[in-house]
């Protein structure tokens, strides 16, 4: 395990690289969900390296270890994470490659925004976990029941006071730069989510993305429905796509939900039996 600091574009992005003992089968970049720190994904990163993969985790600028100043001074939004941070991480991943494929393993937000990276065409395959569009009225019942509190009270009241979104104190999402939270709030209140809020040029990058996609929908996801996953996949029209359901019945657990796929308790039931197959590149 090696820490790496990327400082391009006047930004600070902290990565961790896990090397396999032998020649890497592929280089995998794990892209986090909104507000989730890279350390959450390090158990699966370590396990994948034991299976023969080089794995890179990272925090978007203003999240986790990618903080180089007080959070209220970091002006980054989510599109900056895509166009600047992901571009930088993909450049770094390419510098590590020795001819093997490059795989983007995305959780939630990580699969929503990757196509906006200027070098997303370098990805040979994308695997997504619980990654779909997030318009709140088309999301799960739980989201429809509670998200109004986030959008109309927590964000507009707490963010100006703190200078950033204090999600940790509010037990909502996590601490985030103000601009990123405001942008996500706007996306979630738009019928076609981020696609109602990006430029024609940025939309064209989704059409240009042609790497095959293996997507997983978690049947007991408390945030997204299967239709959310299908809607996001429709915005990648030129990629070959496979969508598979993961259910608690496939495991010895009572539930998986939006986040728990990445916990080591699912090492045998979900990682070995489902993820490893999805990571194969033809």
TrEMBL record:
InterPro entries: AB_hydrolase_fold, Hydrolase_4, MAG_DAG_Lipase, UCP037442_abhydr. Keywords: Membrane, Transmembrane, Transmembrane helix. It comes from the Bacteria. Residues 24-150 form the Serine aminopeptidase S33 domain. The chain crosses the membrane at residues 148-167. It holds the Pfam family Hydrolase_4. PANTHER family: PHOSPHOLIPASE-RELATED (PTHR11614). This is Dehydrogenase. It comes from Idiomarina ramblicola.
